[in-house]
Amino acid sequence: MYVRDAKNREEVWLLDHIEDMGLDETAFRSRDYVIAIDEETNEKAGFGRIRVHKADDEAVCELTSIGVLDDWRGQGIGAHVVERLIQKAGDEGFETVYSLTDAPDYLRQFEFEPIDAGSLPEKLQDRLDEKREATAPDAVPMALSVAEFRMPRRFREAFKRAAADEGESEPEEGPEDFGIDPDEATYKYDTGR
């Protein structure tokens, strides 16, 4: 399992899953996303995005639209997506990363702290209002100093063993499932002659 930058050809896949999960697709650009990939099967497992908001001479970085496909949940996929996004933000020179989330307990595991909406940069205050109206009525603002990010050990271990949950396999169908008696049936064309 690894996490890499999204490619343009993955736009449709991203948009489909963002819509299915009810996540925010405002100002969508595939190059802002990262995707978790199973290296054995090439199956996509999760994704997330950093969104840079520019106002005058200030730029602000937001983590948003983090999602893990159902079959991959509980295996550290989301944690590694968050880690890659934080890395990417740091590489772009951001010291603080914000998130407007309705899952604050999840982000607390990585040292994100809730903050007062009034202390958000102005651009994110407007964004918080929009997000509460559109996709996440319970969204709360959180912030993380990039240098303070911590990955809990359990997520690292789970990520190493991550595999899709295939669910229960269905039994193989046989002739009886179609009302055919296998002892009496012939499998050649019968013309009745």
Plain-language structure description:
This protein is an alpha+beta fold and 193 residues long. The chain has one domain (2-163): 3-Layer(aba) Sandwich (Aminopeptidase). Helix content is 27%, strand content 24%. The chain is built from five helices and seven strands, in the order E-H-E-E-E-H-E-H-E-H-E-H. The protein has helices at residues 11-21, 77-91, 104-108, 122-134, 153-160, and strands at residues 2-5, 33-37, 44-55, 58-68, 96-101, 113-114, 140-145. It has a seven-stranded mixed beta sheet with strand order 1-2-3-4-5-7-6, sandwiched between helices. Strand 3 (44-55) and strand 4 (58-68) form a beta hairpin. The longest helix is centred in the middle third of the chain and has 15 residues, at 77-91. The chain is elongated and about 80 Å long. It starts with a strand and ends in a 33-residue tail after the last helix.
Brief characterization of the structure:
With 193 residues, the chain is an alpha+beta fold. It has helices at residues 11-21, 77-91, 104-108, 122-134, 153-160, and strands at 2-5, 33-37, 44-55, 58-68, 96-101, 113-114, 140-145.
Write the layout of secondary structure elements.
Blueprint: E1 2-5, H1 11-21, E2 33-37, E3 44-55, E4 58-68, H2 77-91, E5 96-101, H3 104-108, E6 113-114, H4 122-134, E7 140-145, H5 153-160
Parallel strand pairs: 4-5
Antiparallel strand pairs: 1-2, 2-3, 3-4, 5-7, 6-7
